[in-house]
Please model this.
Amino acid sequence: MIKYNNLISNNVSTAEIEIALSEFFKCNKNIVIPNLSYGFGRGRKNCYEKDLVVIYPSGKVYEIEIKVSKADLKADTHKGHTHDANFISQLYFAIPQKLFDEKGVIALIPEKAGILVISKKWFTNVYGDNLNIMYYDVNMYRKAQINSKANVLSKEEQYKMMKLAYLRVWSNKKKVLKLNEQISELKNLLKKQK
Model:
C-alpha cells in the first residue's frame, strides 16, 4: 500500500530538474541529451547551448531551457538568440515550483514556450518498512506552440547528436578520475599530518 504524504519541496536544483525531465520525456524510449552545445547545426541561429534536447524516433526535437532563478530568466532575454534553431519543433522552459510561485516570472518566458513546473514530493511505502520515498513531479502549466517550419532530423543527424552526448560521457569520466586522484592525495596528506 502506498500513502502519499503532503511533503513537498519546491526548491530543486538544475541537476534534479534534468533527472526529472529525463523521466518525464521517457529517456528509455526517446533520446534525451543535456547541454547540447555548439557541435551541432550550422549558422548563428542553431549555434547556442541547449540545456536539454529530446529527440523522438520520428526526428522531432524539443528544446528545454532550465531556469532556477528569476535572474537567470531575465539574463536569458539578453542572449543573442531566441531559442529558434531550425530543428526545434517545440520549446519548453522548466522551472522549480519555488520560482513559478514568484510574481512576474511567467511574463519572462516567451509566449511560444511551454512551461514545465518541477517539485519534489514524497510517498510512504507502508508495507513493512514505512520508507519515505522521494519522486519528482513534473506539471505542464502551459503547452508549447508547435514550430511547423522545424526540420525533422534525419537518422544521420540524430546519430551526430548522440555522438556529441557520448563524447561528453568520456570527457566527464576523465574529470571524475582526476578528482578521485586529487581526493586520494588530500587523504594521504591528512593522514601524514595526524
